[in-house]
Design goal:
Helix content: 25-40%
Bound molecules: flavin-adenine dinucleotide
Strand content: 15-25%
Oligomer: single chain
CATH architecture of one domain: 2-Layer Sandwich
CATH superfamily of one domain: CO dehydrogenase flavoprotein, C-terminal domain
CATH topology of one domain: Enolase-like, domain 1
Number of helices: 13
Radius of gyration: 19 Å
Largest sheet: 5 strands, antiparallel
Distance between the termini: 51 Å
CATH class of one domain: Alpha Beta
Strand order of the largest sheet: 4-5-8-6-7
């Protein structure tokens, strides 16, 4: 690990001032950042510890907008009883992520900024455009079983790995970003970038900006929602495929549907195709499978990951049927 200066600001203002210095990276729970530094995948010269700053861990789950302070811990939010009742998809995405020990330390802001688990990126030696722009993508002719089906390019096939971000994508979510220059708010759907030609660019976060909160517009669809995650191991593993589904219904008729996919795309992936296949339909097993089919219509499988299409179709279908039972 290369030497760095550790900074512990006394206030958010002090932190924003320090963040504007080149070479500065933020440290929140540290569960990703320390790994990246140890692996030679991040090399800040100044590490800005914000984990203790007051006011940034507050969570509000009533009113027209839910507000999650960026420093709220995953474990604490998963225990929030209002959220458990009114937004089970959000809670389940946290409960199914990582391990209890990690969730005790990891923050919501850090979670949406976690980096891909692509082994070619993480191993620090393979050609990887995300790590060394212009070096190539080893997955293109390599192991691609866990790679993405959406939002990729020949420059990068890596997955976005987060569960909480996938569930957030099913709602009207925004991210509050502060810098010494002030506050800006970005729609969550525009916060992460598909990898395209520049896989090293993953989010619209600018140097000097700190995520201070994540907001979600309140919706009755939250109650009839679920997050379903399928993985190689039942615990402590990333999603092969996951789906968040949130529904509004009149009787068995779906009046509004929100569907997002995880483990299959370069960023948290909303599926308007699946939503259209559910909306205005009487929900049945056949209709839920049609929605799953629609969700994966535009998928671009490689040699070893086409199985995710059939798996994903069933994950979306099962999530829709589970969500509907919660009306
Ligand atoms: C073994 C293991 C298994 C895991 N399994 C899962 C899983 O199944 N599902 C899942 O979703 N996640 C999983 N994770 C990822 C874990 O959830 C993230 O590491 C965690 O949420 C990151 O939060 P943190 O507070 O520790 O962030 P940090 O490690 O402190 O920071 C992560 C990144 O975000 C930046 N950052 C953090 N907070 C801010 C902020 N407020 N403003 C600006 N930048 C910021 C940091 O500079 C850094 O680049 C796993 C992690 C590990 C180590």
């Amino acid at each position: 690990m290369q030497p760095f200066t550790y900074l512990r600001p006394a206030s958010l203002d002090e932190a924003l001032h320090a963040a504007s210095e080149p070479g500065t990276s933020v440290l929140a729970g540290g569960t990703t950042m320390v790994d990246l530094m140890r692996g030679g995948l991040a090399w800040p010269t100044r590490l800005l510890d914000i984990s203790h700053l007051p006011g940034l861990a507050d969570v509000q789950t009533d009113g027209p907008v839910l507000r999650f302070g960026a420093l709220a811990r995953m474990a604490d939010v998963a225990e929030n009883e209002t959220l458990q009742r009114a937004y089970p998809a959000l809670v389940e995405s946290l409960q199914l992520a990582a391990s209890q020990q990690l969730r005790n330390a990891a923050t919501l802001g850090g979670n949406i900024l976690q980096r891909t688990r692509c082994p070619y990126f993480r191993n620090g030696v393979s050609d990887c455009n995300k790590r060394v722009p212009g070096s190539g993508c080893s997955a293109v002719d390599g192991e691609d079983r866990e790679m993405a089906l959406f939002g990729t390019s020949e420059s990068c096939l890596a997955n976005y790995p987060g569960d909480w971000g996938t569930a957030l994508a099913a709602f009207d979510t925004a991210v509050e970003l502060r810098s010494a220059a002030g506050l800006r708010t970005v729609k969550f759907s525009e916060f992460h970038l598909p990898y395209g030609e520049d896989p090293a660019a993953e989010t619209v976060l600018r140097p000097g900006e700190i995520v201070t909160a994540i907001t979600v517009r309140a919706t009755p669809a939250g109650r009839a929602s679920t997050y379903l995650k399928v993985r190689d191991r039942q615990s402590y593993a990333y999603a092969l495929v996951s789906a968040a589904v949130a529904l509004e219904m009149e009787g068995d008729m779906v009046t509004s549907a929100r569907v997002s996919l995880g483990g299959v795309a370069s960023k948290p992936w909303r599926s308007p195709e699946a939503e259209a296949a559910l909306t205005g339909r009487r929900l049945s097993e056949a209709v839920s499978l049609e929605a799953g089919e629609a969700a994966f219509k535009g998928a671009k499988p490689r040699r070893q990951n086409a199985f995710k299409i059939e798996l994903g179709r069933r994950v979306v279908a099962r999530a829709a049927l589970t969500a509907a039972k919660r009306i």
